[in-house]
UniProtKB/TrEMBL annotation:
Pfam families: Lectin_C. This is C-type lectin domain-containing protein. Residues 1-29 are annotated as: Disordered. The lineage of its organism: Eukaryota, Metazoa, Ecdysozoa, Nematoda, Chromadorea. SUPFAM superfamilies: C-type lectin-like. It comes from the Eukaryota. Signal peptide: none annotated. Residues 101-197 form the C-type lectin domain. InterPro entries: C-type_lectin-like, C-type_lectin-like/link_sf, C-type_lectin/snaclec_domain, CTDL_fold. Residues 19-29 have a biased composition (Polar residues).
Length: 214
């Protein structure tokens, strides 16, 4: 039995339509049974004592143009992380430390963010990586995901197809090289190769991170 409404009116004021919704033998003439209760199974009403404890449903007036308040939703976990530039399902972000080798920064992108060094497949992503290098104070080079594999083919560290390139002038110049995004500080940017395990000139790296990981 569920109480949907408590009413101060007596049962004598019920009209004929309302009487058809009351249970057999109701409304009651017993003194004190001045409130109505609806049966959760049959849907029929019966008069009950107003002091009886039961569930209830409240009705509040609505005002045109004033929608009911809603609880603000937490931002989705896939929102663009601070300090990153997002494009599609990925965020591009500078790696915090500076690394002595390409292998170290690639491992850092994987361990820290479950990502890889940035792979570039279109002009939009190229522009994003260039902007990160220009905006961040990590020198004029930062490792990206391009390198030569054991068969001397250029590949991306995430395994995606090498279907785009923007080599710096006279590049590539070697076959045991890894690539950085290079800025000559005169408006010319492109991919410049260095030895992958070069120890004497540390570079930052630009990681490509699946949204929700950073």
């Amino acid at each position: 039995m569920s109480c949907l409404e408590r009413s101060s009116m007596g049962t004598t004021g019920l009209d004929e339509a309302t009487r058809t919704m009351t249970a057999s033998g109701k409304p009651s003439t017993v003194s004190g049974n001045d409130c109505l209760m609806v049966d959760s199974v049959t849907g029929l009403w019966s008069a009950r004592n107003c002091n009886e404890i039961a569930m209830h449903v409240c009705e509040t007036p609505s005002e045109p143009g004033n929608p009911p308040p809603t609880t603000p939703l937490a931002p989705p976990s896939s929102s663009c992380p601070s300090g990153a530039i997002c494009h599609g399902a990925y965020a591009s972000k500078i790696a915090d430390p500076v690394f002595l080798t390409w292998q170290l920064v690639e491992k850092w992108c994987q361990d820290r963010w479950k990502g890889h060094l940035a792979s570039i497949h279109d002009d939009t992503t190229e522009a994003i990586v260039e902007k990160i290098l220009i905006d961040e104070s990590f020198g004029n080079s930062a490792w990206i995901g391009a390198r030569y594999d054991a068969s001397l083919k250029p590949v991306w560290s995430d395994g995606s197809k090498m279907d785009y390139h923007k080599f710096y002038k006279r590049e590539p110049i070697g076959r045991t090289q890894c690539f950085t995004m290079y800025n000559n500080n005169n408006g010319l940017l492109g991919w410049k190769s260095f030895a992958c395990d070069m120890q004497f000139l540390p570079f930052a790296g630009i990681c490509e991170i699946p949204l929700g990981q950073a």
